[in-house]
Design goal:
The chain is of the alpha/beta class. The protein has one domain: 3-Layer(aba) Sandwich (UDP-N-acetylmuramoyl-L-alanine:D-glutamate ligase). Helix content is 36%, strand content 22%. It contains 8 helices and 11 strands. It has helices at residues 23-33, 61-74, 88-98, 123-133, 144-151, 158-169, 214-227, 232-248, and strands at 9-17, 37-49, 52-58, 77-82, 106-108, 139-140, 175-178, 187-192, 197-202, 251-252, 258-259. It has a 9-stranded mixed β-sheet, with helices on both faces. A two-stranded antiparallel ribbon has the order 10-11. The chain is globular, with a radius of gyration of 18 Å. 45% of the residues are buried.
């Protein structure tokens, strides 16, 4: 019997970020930091850095389907996470392929607009996501703007977050985590599991501009937690702690640039830092 440590596999289906701060690159870091193995299916190539998105090249739908099939046939996938899906056609490919994972948890991060304002989900794809993908999801993780679009109502505070969570849950039965990072005051995320609300409070940490990729990181870490066998509330709490630590211990990249550091406990040349 092998002495190798078992790491559950998480498949992330999302766009590639050439700056390494969000998308597939952030997903892989978060999954690894949680102790799982990340496999990928790339929906789009983006040219971007921490200042914004310059261009987007969608993947050929047949190539996206083949990536998902290759991972499914080669690995025992324990959780799936989706991020940037971009178009209705690519979203439909994901919907079709997700049916091969009927018992695997699916975390949908409904990525719509980049922090810089670039559109990452076309208008026609929103309807496909709401109608086809959300009913397959275990958890949906919208920010306030995304929750407002999915629920078709204004979302600006905790009461309206509750209303939106219920409305999104009614689209297909998925649990909903409405992220409160854009609220004033402390960061409060609201989890609705279909029966109960759970408020996750954390003192707001000044990001210093290092908040690029926080949504991708959180959703991927939750998926990894589910792959590791954690119940949903515990997976969400563990992922939020990971993100909070990454914000608190962000790293410098030169010229005043700062970014999330999911491996802040690891020092230069792979040495473990003294805590």
């Amino acid at each position: 019997m092998s002495d190798a440590r078992l790491r559950p596999v998480v498949l992330t289906i999302a766009g590639s970020d050439s700056g390494g701060g969000a998308g597939i690159q952030a997903d892989l870091k978060a999954i690894a930091a949680m102790g799982a193995w990340g496999a990928t299916a790339i929906t789009c190539l983006t040219s971007q850095n921490l200042d914004g998105v310059r261009s987007v090249q969608p993947t050929d739908p047949a190539i996206l389907a083949d990536q998902i099939d290759a991972v499914r046939e080669g690995f025992n996938v324990r959780a799936v996470k989706t991020g940037m899906l971009y178009s209705s056609e690519l979203t439909q490919v994901v919907v079709d392929r997700i049916t091969h994972y009927p018992t695997v948890p699916l975390v949908v991060d409904p990525v719509m607009v980049a922090t810089s304002g670039a559109r990452l989900l076309r208008d026609d794809a929103v309807a496909t996501l709401r109608r086809e993908l959300l009913p397959l999801a275990t958890l949906v993780t919208p920010n306030l703007h995304e929750a407002a679009i999915l629920a078709d109502r204004d979302v600006r505070d905790l009461p309206t977050m509750r209303d939106a969570a219920v409305a999104i849950n009614q689209l297909g039965g998925a649990a909903v985590l409405v992220k409160g990072g854009h609220l004033a005051g402390d960061a409060v995320d609201l989890l609705f599991d279909g029966d109960q609300f759970h408020e996750l409070h954390a003192r707001r940490i000044p990001s210093g501009g290092a908040d690029h990729g926080t949504g991708c990181t959180l959703a991927s870490a939750i998926a990894a937690g589910l792959a590791l066998g954690l119940p949903l509330p515990d997976a969400v709490s563990a992922a939020k702690r990971l993100l909070t630590d990454a914000l608190r211990n962000r790293c410098g990249l030169g010229d005043g640039i700062e970014a999330l550091d999911l491996f802040w406990q690891v020092g230069p040349r792979g040495t473990v830092m003294t805590l």
